[in-house]
Write a structure and sequence with these properties.
globular; Butyryl-CoA Dehydrogenase, subunit A, domain 2; FAD; binds flavin-adenine dinucleotide; oxidoreductase; 23 helices; AcylCo_DH-like_C; Butyryl-CoA Dehydrogenase, subunit A, domain 3; oxidoreductase activity; binds ligand LFYB7X4E; six-stranded mixed beta sheet; alpha+beta; peroxisome; three-stranded antiparallel beta sheet
Length: 661
């Protein structure tokens, strides 16, 4: 029986068409739908006991699943697109993510043609397994501060890789702890006593025969991480080198080269390309944020439609908690954010592909913008998604705290995204540097392009005032864009003015960094809002689909406007009355979305297997499933618990000597 059938009947739009919008194309939908069912129906990919397994058992099970996934990919002749969807629906972090997601891209992006020819075929067949070994015990954010050394030995034509201090131990790389045979290791290049900065080196870590660490290599897992199951399926590792020798041709030499006679040569590509793998992965993280958030929102929305509290009249049913405005005010902006992040993720993938093509043609002009966009949007979307998952857990009341809700594990597995691939604050500071540079160049005649083109309208935006007179005026895209542009430009200009008061710009930057981060957030929010609005300019087929997306877009920007009202008011763009009208319009949009809420989350097309949540299951039959699941907990294997006779019975039977007790 479908306990959510009445909700589904209320939908005012074509859910099948919305599924295609969400997937990106009909083809992408068909692939995704087919692979999600394939995974859901395969007992080899079960995950329902994951949060109950001890680490060793959990990890071994992940190794089994990864090998099984690889076999299925081969047996079924899956394409790269299908294999990547399979990884997504298997829903378990594993060493394979770092192999495919960082090791391979690092060789592709930083290796010469010759190096790619040698290493990529081995990696593609998984005859070697690689990790990305950059972070150390002492330094993660400050890549220039890494201590591992790679010293060129001209006698033997080798590099000597060494960990000179405890803090130079590699620490965190995924897949390193127990599986990787190789790593792209980042180290400080030294030639003839002279330092040449951080470079990547392909280093073999373990024997391909017996998997033992090679001489001079000390390697292991760094230990349990936050949450049950969650990221503990990954072997994040520690690694030390004691004068390990590798051939000279294992330095990744696309950006710079070391010749046989020990000369250091720089290609004409910018040295920042050494950071290129991080740009790639940040872009994939943005594309993934909408998936994690939409998953949590699906659970919270379906459960909010099932759950009833208070409000029974004449013995009738109580109120569905989704009908409380407070619930809507917490839930619907997250639903809207999931859609917003989907569209900005699609756009960022386009931007990344565009910059990659330009780089191949030796056009490096858009690299700074690509860095700022990937860094800023990675920060914005992962912070909002991690907070959003936790909010969804609270939206499910007490039951959200059960592992069987799926939300605790989803949060635990997702929240490190705020840290890995660049701490979110550190990344926003990179955006702020980009903005300050842009503002400082405004008078130079250099026209700001792309996502900062709005800075070209600085004079207009500094003067302009909001013209909204009634709540519906907040539905005009041009009005909304101007509001977000004016806020972003005014915050950036205010920071630039304050910075100019410092004689030492770096001191000023450090002193004003909290304001700079806020200016960077305003800029990134503008990007997300503008990309959502751009999406709505496209032809979107299907009854009512565009109207729902318009309502969600409105919820997204009006919610931001309400949350950051202080910014908008402080920059004098809005009056308090106009801010209040924005809030009236936001409430009206909640009412519009309410009957469509369950259908809007159905449009994500997630299987019950992928959701991994009793509260979020498609049929909404929550209570019997919760009740049954409780009895399956290993603690209920016996009626009297282990330990009763040692620890509980003696308490119950003790003879108390103290009269007062
Ligand atoms: C059980 C499972 C079974 C499934 C099995 C299936 C298997 C089969 C699958 C087959 C599939 C096939 C298909 C494959 C699909 C692949 C999918 C895989 C999934 C992918 C996802 C990957 C997983 C993600 C997990 C994440 C793991 C985490 C990894 C890490 O964290 S790695 C370490 C990251 N570290 C950081 O991010 C450090 C942060 N710090 C920095 O970036 C920098 O140091 C800095 C930028 C903060 C400062 O640097 P620096 O001091 O040098 O810089 P400045 O002086 O400030 O700047 C100088 C100058 O440079 C500019 N700049 C800085 N950075 C960049 C940059 N990145 N790019 C360009 N420019 C940059 C900066 O702006 C300055 O410019 P200017 O001088 O001002 O002009
Ligand atoms: C689950 C997980 C997986 C990972 N996988 C990998 C991997 O595969 N390979 C790899 O190489 N690394 C990996 N990492 C490491 C990760 O990239 C780093 O942890 C990350 O870049 C943050 O660096 P850090 O730990 O040095 O944090 P720190 O920089 O020490 O941050 C600590 C605090 O200091 C603040 N801070 C730091 N610098 C500044 C500044 N300049 N201004 C203001 N505030 C600042 C930060 O905001 C933060 O609040 C992984 C990490 C995690 C958690």
């Amino acid at each position: 029986m479908d306990y959510l059938a009445d909700e589904r009947k209320k939908a005012e739009f074509d859910v099948d068409e919305m599924k295609i919008v969400w997937a990106g194309s009909r083809h992408a939908f068909e692939v995704s739908d087919r692979i999600s069912k394939l995974v859901a129906n395969d007992p080899g990919f079960r995950k329902d006991t994951r949060t109950m397994l001890a680490r060793k058992e959990l990890f071994k099970n992940t190794l089994r699943k990864a090998a099984y996934a690889w076999k299925r990919i081969h047996d079924l002749h899956l394409s790269e697109e299908e294999a990547s969807r399979l990884r997504f629906y298997v829903d378990e972090p594993a060493y394979t993510d770092l192999h495919w997601g960082m090791f391979v891209p690092a060789i592709k992006g930083q290796g010469t043609d010759e190096q790619q020819k040698k290493w990529l075929p081995l990696a593609y067949k998984m005859q070697i397994i690689g990790c990305y070994a950059q972070t150390e015990l002492g330094h993660g954010s400050n890549v220039q501060g890494l201590e591992t050394t790679a010293t060129f030995d001209p006698q033997t034509d080798e590099f000597v890789i060494h960990s000179p201090t405890l803090t130079s131990s590699k620490w965190w790389p995924g897949g390193l702890g127990k599986v990787s045979t190789h790593g792209v290791v980042y180290a400080r290049l030294i030639i003839n006593g002279e330092e040449h900065g951080i470079h990547g080196f392909i280093v073999q870590l373990r024997s391909l025969e017996d998997h033992l660490p090679l001489p001079g290599v000390t390697v292991g897992d760094i230990g349990m991480k936050f949450g049950n199951g969650a990221y503990n399926t990954m072997d994040n590792g520690v690694l030390r080198f004691d004068h390990v020798r590798i051939p000279r041709n294992q330095m990744l030499m696309r950006v710079s080269q070391v010749t046989r006679d020990g000369k250091y040569k720089q290609s004409d590509v910018p040295r920042q390309l050494v950071y290129g793998t991080m740009v790639y992965v940040r872009q994939t993280i943005v594309a993934d944020a909408s998936c994690a958030l939409s998953r949590a929102v699906t659970i919270a929305t379906r459960y909010s439609a099932v759950r009833r509290q208070f409000g029974s009249q004449n013995g009738g049913p109580e109120t569905q908690v989704i009908d409380y405005k407070t619930q809507q005010n917490r839930l619907f902006p997250l639903l809207a954010s999931a859609y917003a992040f989907k569209f900005v993720g699609e756009w960022l993938t386009w931007l990344y592909n565009d910059v990659t093509q330009r780089l191949q043609a030796s056009d490096f002009s858009t690299l700074p913008e690509a860095h700022a966009c990937t860094a800023g949007l990675k920060s914005l979307t992962t912070t909002a998604t991690a907070d959003g998952i936790e909010e969804c857990r609270k939206l499910c009341g007490g039951h959200g705290y059960l592992c069987s809700s799926g939300l605790p594990e989803l949060f635990a597995v997702y929240v490190p995204a705020c840290t890995y691939e660049g701490d979110n604050t550190v990344l926003l500071l990179q955006v702020a540097r980009f903005l300050m540079k842009t503002v400082s160049q405004l008078g130079s005649g250099k026209k700001p392009l792309g996502t900062i083109s709005y800075m070209g309208k600085i004079e207009h935006l500094m003067q302009s005032r909001c013209t909204v007179q009634k709540a519906e005026d907040w539905l005009k895209p041009s009005q909304v864009l101007e509001a977000f542009e004016a806020r972003a430009v005014k915050m950036a200009v205010s920071c630039a003015k304050n910075l100019s008061k410092f004689t030492n710009p770096e001191e000023g930057f450090a002193e004003l960094s909290a304001d700079l981060v806020e200016a960077a957030v305003a800029h990134c929010q503008l990007i997300v809002v503008s990309k959502f609005i751009d999406k709505l300019q496209q032809d979107i087929p299907g009854k009512g689909v565009k109207q729902q997306l318009e309502a969600l877009c409105g919820i997204y920007y009006l919610y931001l406007l309400h949350k950051h009202q202080g910014d908008f008011l402080a920059t004098s763009y809005l009056t308090p009355k106009q801010a209040a009208l924005a809030n009236d319009q936001l409430r009206a949009l909640y009412t519009k979305v309410r009957p469509n809420a369950v259908a809007l989350v159905d449009s994500f097309n997630y299987t019950d297997h992928f959701l991994g949540s009793i509260l979020g299951c498609y049929d909404g039959n929550v209570y019997p499933k919760l009740y049954d699941a409780a009895w399956k907990d290993p603690l209920n294997d016996s009626v009297v618990p282990e330990g009763y006779h040692e620890y509980v019975r003696p308490l119950l039977k003790q003879q108390l000597h103290t009269a007062k007790l």
